[in-house]
Write the structure tokens for this entry.
Amino acid sequence: MNDDPRADQLYWRFLDQYFGLELVPSLSKNQELFSEFDDEVKPLLVDEARRFVGQVMSGGTGRIDELLGANYTFLNERLAEFYGVSGVSGESMQQVELPAGERAGLLTHGGFLAVLGNETSGSPTLRGRFVRTKLLCQPIPEPPPNVNNAIEPPGEVHTTRQRYEEHLTRDDCRGCHAQMDPIGFGLENFDAVGRFRTEENGEPVDASGVIHDLGGVDVPFDGPRELVEALLASPELGDCVATHFFRYALGRMEQRFDECELERIQSEFAESGGHLPALLAAVVGSSTFQYRVKE
Ligand code: HEC
């Protein structure tokens, strides 16, 4: 299945939707702060993710730990300039290794990070919510209708983190925001368009955080790599990816009567060590999928 270009397409379309990459071309960011995020770079960011997924699936291990943990990516000169990476020349996209502390797979791609933010900054809330709901399948209730969703303007506080930390000090916000923001803090090394940084407005970036209630315990981490490692070490991640793939392949949410089949798919995926082609085979081979095809 690994060599089948149609399978690559399927993963790509799934991941494109899952990671919100289809939204990248229509994003707009504050042009004073992010003038480099232009119409030339946006398609390159999509191309980066696409080539990366293609490499993981066709040349690499095809496993979730490579998809979320690899420290290589694909850049051409223009995109490398955008990211501030030196030593890449020419128009064609090429595989580039980055320091392991700076990159960890798709969660650290510019396209993905740009989607989960607003015009002027990245959003620890939205980044954390993605991890909580899309990678761990733990729902967060919708925000109460009367809450002011505006973020503190920069002023007294100098970092994105400081602006979001306020949510965690208030009793009426903490219940939901403690489930999201401290995860998102792990990606604070990336600005609103995914460029690596160690300082923001003259202050050092603090990318430490905690995943509350991961398999019943609070898991602290420091930086993007430790965040991803904590996720990869938790059974919730593989089960959740399997659930989302199941939904994608069937074009619907799982129902009560899918429980046994979904559990079987999740355990096959876990036994394969998070091998995505094994997940595809498990879903396509399931009676639920076959029945759907015959309909
Ligand atoms: C019931 C859960 C819940 C509670 C309680 C809650 N929020 Fe939220 N909040 C969310 C969710 C989910 C989001 C992200 C989705 C969205 O913006 O609709 C969010 C988003 C936000 C955002 C926008 C963040 C961004 O980067 O776009 C702000 C600001 C915010 N909340 C402030 C607050 C404040 C202040 C309180 C306390 C008075 C609060 N929220 C209470 C669930 C909650």
About this structure: The chain has a mean pLDDT of 92. The pocket of heme C is lined by residues 118, 123, 125-126, 129, 140-144, 147, 149, 151, 167, 170, 172-173, 175-177 (CB under 6 Å).
